[in-house]
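User: For a benchmark we're assembling, each entry needs the component sequences followed by a predicted structure for the full assembly. Here are entry 17's components. Please fill in the structure.
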Amino acid sequence: GQQLNQSPQSMFIQEGEDVSMNCTSSSIFNTWLWYKQDPGEGPVLLIALYKAGELTSNGRLTAQFGITRKDSFLNISASIPSDVGIYFCAGRKDDMRFGAGTRLTVKP
Amino acid sequence: NAGVTQTPKFQVLKTGQSMTLQCAQDMNHEYMSWYRQDPGMGLRLIHYSVGAGITDQGEVPNGYNVSRSTTEDFPLRLLSAAPSQTSVYFCASSYAWGGHEQYFGPGTRLTVT
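Assistant: Structure for entry 17:
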């Protein structure tokens, strides 16, 4: 099936550090998306990727669509306390599938 | 624009009861969908609709019904609630299936006892 494996499950980092998380699948996706969810709220789209090999930035966030179309990563540079939250990858082909999320904690 | 709204925010049901979770959007989006979010499992697609009068099943449709009589509204019905349906439910909409961003509602936290 179109399952997404997202890692790591959680991260505890110091403010100012860089963060990297990734998503892999045995299936090919046409679109990769990265969302952030704050407590008690719905996910908010951070970055959308539409082509294999695409590298896209949104401020301190950078994401890439893997060449094989089966993976994607998200980097956050120079983390700040408001980066705290759960980050989800999502792949879209016939429908949308989500990873289990990476819970990020940033210590000031 | 209010975006995507969901009601209620919290609900407790007894096993076997039925109820409808409401979702509305005021962005004239064609595509709407329902997800459930369980700890450690991310979001799973229940049902989706690509336009008024058209619905289809997602990854976990059993126990849920949907209808789309208008572009704005996409209610989710639980026919006979079970404890396994305890979850947080999110409604989302986007301009089109191939469109960029899905806008999520704030969620409904459902507990079935």
